[in-house]
Prior knowledge:
- This protein is mainly beta.
- It is built from no helices and eleven strands.
- The protein has strands at 2-7, 10-13, 18-26, 33-39, 46-52, 57-59, 67-72, 77-82, 91-102, 105-110, 114-119.
- Strands 2, 4, 5, 6, 9, 10 and 11 form a seven-stranded mixed beta sheet that branches.
Amino acid sequence: QVQLVESGGGLVQAGGSLRLSCVVSGSIFSINGFGWYRQAPGKQRELVASFITSGSTNYADSVKGRFTISRDNAKNTVYLQMSSLKPEDTAVYYCNAYKNFDVGRRYDYWGQGTQVTVSS
């Protein structure tokens, strides 16, 4: 089993920066990828950024060029560096990890989320 704990959220002014951290524990060596998702009030959870073991990354169009996902294997921590923040970035941000068992079969693990609020 995999456990994820997010931290680093808070209140920041538009144009500011914030770094989110996700500490990963448990059966971490079989994890195939990581991601950061966010959910604003009244909206569905959406993918913000993802990272797979091959090194490939993916970003939502709305954050590309502003957000960066990275991992420190020695610290078992995944990061989301956010810059040039906008009020529309306000949401609860969730850390995600997944394992592939076979083609078309994937199991996802989730943290409990950290609130990011960007003032205008």
